[in-house]
Structures are given as C-alpha cells and as structure tokens.
Amino acid sequence: MTSLPPISVSDKNSFANSDAIRSTHLHLSLTADFDRKVLHGHVVHSLSVLKDSVKELVLDSSYIDVKAVTINGTDEALEFVVHDRHAIYGSPVQIRFPRALAKGEEIAVKVVYSTTKDCTAIQWLEPSQTVGKKHPYLFTQCQAIHARSLVPCQDTPSIKIKYSADVTAPAHLRALMSAVPKDEVVSGSHKKYNFDQAIAIPSYLIALAVGNLEGRKIGPRSTVWSEPEMVEASAWEFVETEDFIATGEKLLTPYCWGVYDLLVLPGSFPYGGMENPCLTFVTPTLLAGDRSLVDVVAHELAHSWMGNLVTSSNWEHFWLNEGWTMFVERKIIGRIRGNAEAEFSAIVGLKALKESIDHYDEIKTPQYTALVPELGGVDPDDSFSSVPYEKGFNLLYYLEVQLGGPSVFEPFVTAYVERFSHKSITTTDFKSFLYEYFNKHDHSKIKVLDAIDWHTWFHGQGYPPVKNEFDQTLAKACDELAKRWDSARASDKLDFSPEDIRNFSSTQTVVFLEKLLELTPLPHKLLAEMDKVYSLTSVRNAEIRFRWQWLCLKADYEAIFPAVAAFLVEAGRMKYVRPLYRAWDKTTNGGPLARKTFLDNRSFYHPICAAMVAKDLGL
Ligand code: BES
Ligand code: ZN
User: Which one of 17, 35, 318, 361 has the fewest beta carbons within 10 angstroms of its own beta carbon?
Assistant: First the structure.
C-alpha cells in the first residue's frame, strides 16, 4: 500500500495539495436515495494550477466510494488511489494527471462517487424521527472537517470556492442548500433542484437538507423553512431577523449574500445554529415561544461577515470566526435590546468559558484552552469549546476598552471586514492589520497596543490574562436569589415563592441557576422545594431546562432522571447533550441508565454528536 500523502502546508487537518493546485469552483450533481441512505452522483472541480510541473491532485475524502475520475469534460479516465483511512482526517484521494501541469493552467476534474452509511456529515432520519412522522429527512453538518464525507474536496478553510449544484429528490420533498435556489424541474416521481452560490466560500459552508419543508416569508430577504408543523411557530419566533440584518449592515458592510433564510431542523440537529450562507440552520430548541433565544440568530447572522466573508485559514485560528462573531452578535443585541442585555450575555459567556477550562483540566487536555491551539494530529471536534468564543470575545472587548471605546474601535471593525472579505486569514494577519490601522489613523494608540500581553492572550492556557468588568445590572437579582438559596441550607424555615422569579427574564433564571452550579450541590430537600415553588422541571425553555437538570445531576438528585432521559431524546444539541450525559454518568447510580439511554437512542443523534458522546462516556 502506498503511504499517505503529506499533510497540507497551510492546514494541519487536510491532505489537499492546495499550495500546488486549487479548486475555484465546484459543481455538485447528487441524487438523494432515501432507501439506501446514500447520495450518489458526481462533483466537477474547476482548478487553477499554482506551480510548475504539478503531477497530481489530492482531495480529502472520508467514507466516500469513488467510482471514477475523468478530466476536462472528456471520458478520459485518470488514475487515482483512495488511501487507507487516517483515523481522523480520512482517506485522501490521490489523482494522477496524464502529464505534468504548468503554472496558470486551468483544468476540470470530475469525480463520480457515492456517499456511504458511515459519512459523518450526513444524518438520514426515518419518518419517525421527524416532527411530521410521515417523510424521511436528511441534513448535513460540514464544519469543521466533515465536508470531505459529503464531497471529495480540498477540505480546508484556506481555500474558497464558488459552487453550483443540482440535487434530485423525491418530488414531494424539497431540497435546500447554502446557496441561492434556482429553478426546479420535475421528472416523473422526482424533482431536480438547482442552486448557485456565487460568492466563494470555504468547504465547511457547503450544506444540504432534504425533507418535507415549507417556507414562510418573515422579511424582505428572509424566509423561514421547517417541517409544516413548526413553520408558524418559527415565523413568530424569528420575526426580528430583518432588524438583525439591518443592524449588522449599519455596524459593518452591506449584507452581500442576497437572501438570509433560516431552516429550523428536527431535534437531532447537533448545534444551536450553523451559519450556512444564505440559509442558517438552527435547532428547534430555539422555539421557546417568547423569542428569548433568538440571540443565536443574531450570532449566525454575524457570521455573514465574521467567518463567511473573513475566514480563519485553518482550525487553529477558529477564534477569528467565533470570537469575532460573539463580539458582533453582542453589538447587535446591544443595539436592539440595550447594552445591559449585551453585557449580561457576556457574563453568561464567562461562565461558559469557565466550564470549558474546567472540563479540559479535568480530562487533562489544557492545551485546548489556548486561544490559538496547536492542532497537528488533532480532531478539531475535540478542541471545540467555548474557549475560542469567549476568550476571543474577551480579547476584542478588552481591545475596544483599551483603545478608547466603540467610537474608536467600531470603525476599525468595519475596516477589518473591508480589508479581509473574501480572504482566509490567520491571527498574525489580524494583529498586523490592527497595528497598521492604528498606525495610520491614530498613532497614539500604538503604545496601547504594545502594552497588550499578546503572547499570553494567544498562546497562554486557562483564563485570559486580564479580566473585563461587565455591567452587573441584570445579574444582581440572580446573584441575590442564589445567595438566599445557598443560606437556606442552614435554616429550617423556608420562605421562597414563585414571586422570586416572576419578573426574571429567562436569561436571568439561567444565570440564577449558573450561580448555584458554582456552589457545593444543594441538599435534595432544597432542590425539591425549588422545583415546587418555581416548577423548573416542567419549564420548556431549553436553556433553563438544561441548567436545572444539570444542577440536579450534580447534586445526585435521582428524581430528575426521567426528565433528563426525556430531554436527551428530544434534543440532540451537543451543548446540552454532552454535559448532561457526562453528569448523569457521574451520579452514584445513574451511570448504567445514562449509557443505556444513549445506546438505545444512538440513531436519534447526528453522527458527530453520537461520536462525541461515545467518547465522553468512554464507549
Ligand atoms: N459555527 C458554529 C457551529 C460550529 C462550530 C459547528 C464548530 C461545528 C464546528 C455556530 O455559529 C455556533 O457557534 N453555534 C453556537 C451558537 C451560539 C454561540 C449562539 C451553538 O451551536 O451553540
Ligand atoms: Zn458561531
């Protein structure tokens, strides 16, 4: 067997030889076969040769069945090898050209292929796993390195490609992609849906969903899509979408993607949201019925600039996507809901950062708590946590304060987007531009920048080197109530009532529970009382439900087990599922039940989530 090709120069998580030849456009032509649970068809890559005497093209692939490779629209078959799997990065496809290519040549390579049941990007849902229970469903999740299990490609965010696609599906279902929908053609029992993404994007933003989908227009450039049963509720929950877009535009640059649609997925969607261009994917757990969780939409929208236009070059610089997006998300929330709300969100973020740092300490991988971690040989899904989000946010927030506040920093943010849109960049590019900008606009700021402990911010483990002070207006009442419960351990007369939280926003209830999560677990008697007065077990808001169940599990409160089991098979969002399974597994008697619940329901979870939980539980 031939040995694996070398890892890419610009991305330790890819085998693509993208320094020699790069894809500029791909066309995907796929048929969704719900009986066999495979996508089959082909991809055509348009490629530019960047160097002289390029003899091969290496594409990333994972669990893909490659059937044939041809060149330049001919039937001329190219020799290729699909390598044995690298455990994390999959099976590179090494394609040999008939002759060495010269710098500047343009070629087209067609790969005929089929996905397999092991492809981690795709979840195939049985009708019983959907809301409507009548039709099958499929959806993809490509970030970070799963695009290679949907399509053989140069699966690195250092490369940006335009794409077009045609997807054939049963005619009663609808296909949607992270692109602008074009025409639809019916042929017999099937329908072919065409798409075009005219802005170059990294491979992780390719996305597809096929199901019984209905749309409702919720703004001049936005439609919300979901199964018909959820579409009304979704349209209600996300009415503010256009306000978010308009606010983003005022803050940054015009929204350039044409449409901004939302797709509300079935319960197994593994994230809160995913910023697929033109079509953000969101979890149905956002449908709280009170618009209290729509900050996730503000977040995914903010990626339209931070991540989707200005993209981190590889997964070590992921904070440039997520830290910047948190920063813009909170700016948007601040503009629309007021600054106290944005600062409150930052307080929630700090707690999430603490959880992540504690978790990585516990599993002895503190290297993942660096803002710019070293990811050679690492699965980026393992390094995924709140660290890039919240440490990144805290760095940007700190910079804003140090440099003189929003009036100084916001123009820089716009300039940053203008400078790096349609590019992939590293942390060094960010820092150099920061210096370049202030050198030009206000030289007095250079000494401010020089005083920043960059090395610790970027490479230090654990907490950031400096602590930001956030406005405590909304946190105060949460803190006080948590203190009352904490003191109640010692007293035998309890005087709590539903009034305590009557005027709390759902985020305040979340923060109240988070304060308690930091303390020694409450005695069962108090947990029972708390549930009696606040009815927490029956709350539907997923953020509250999650913290409440977590608090109970940490206290070994077995009365919560049935509710945990119910939540875990209703929502497959990893933010909830992973900590809950871990905490359940750690209870005195819950371990076997936690494992059984997971194993019995494994097919409910998206493959990415199932793999992570299996790792967490040591299965
Ligand atoms: N891009 C992420 C989701 C993601 C990150 C998927 C890395 C795969 C690998 C998305 O924008 C995100 O951050 N979602 C958050 C939303 C939250 C921070 C508002 C989530 O899913 O919880
Ligand atoms: Zn994000």
Answer: 35
pLDDT in tens, 551-600: 999 999 999 999 999 999 999 999 999 999 999 999 999 999 999 999 99
Residue 319 and residue 384 in contact, taking contact as beta carbons nearer than 8 Å:
no
- Element containing residue 239 per DSSP (H, E): none
499 is annotated as an active-site residue:
no
What whole-number percentage of the chain has pLDDT above 70? 100
Q: Is 534 in the pocket of ligand 1 (CB under 6 A)?
A: no
* Ligand 1 touching residue 276 (CB < 6 A): no
Q: Is pLDDT at 530 greater than 60 in this prediction?
A: yes
Query: 272 C-alpha to center of ligand 1: Å?
Result: 6
Residue 208, Cβ density class (10 Å: 0-12 exposed, 13-18 middle, ≥19 buried) = buried
What is the number of the ligand 1 atom nearest to the C-alpha of 380? 9
Rounded average pLDDT over 437-442 = 98
Q: Quick: pLDDT tens for 335-383.
A: 999 999 999 999 999 999 999 999 999 999 999 999 999 999 999 999 9
pLDDT tens per residue across span 116-148: 999 999 999 999 999 999 999 999 999 999 999
Is 80 touching ligand 1 by the criterion CB < 6 Å?
A: no
Is 389 labeled as catalytic in the residue annotation? yes
Task: Tell me the ligand closest to 384's alpha carbon.
Answer: 1
* Closest CA to ligand 1's atom 2: 274
Given 137, 193, 389, 557, the catalytic residue:
389
Q: For the residues 16-36, what does the mean pLDDT come to?
A: 98
In ligand 1, the atom with minimum distance to the C-alpha of 573 is: 21
Query: What are the structural domains of the chain?
Result: 1-208 (2.60.40.1730), 213-304 (3.30.2010.30), 312-459 (1.10.390.10), 476-616 (1.25.40.320)
Instruction: Kindly list the distances between the CA atom of residue 262 and the CA atoms of 91, 335, 593, in Å, as whole numbers in the listed order.
Output: 33, 22, 36
Mapped to the 3 state alphabet, what secondary structure does 123-172 carry?
EEECHHHCCCCCCCEEEECCCCCCHHHCCCECCCCCCCEEEEEEEEEECC
Ligand 1 centroid from CA 575, angstroms: 10
- Residue nearest to ligand 1 atom 14, measured at CA: 273
Rounded distance between C-alpha atoms, residue 324 and residue 322, angstroms: 5
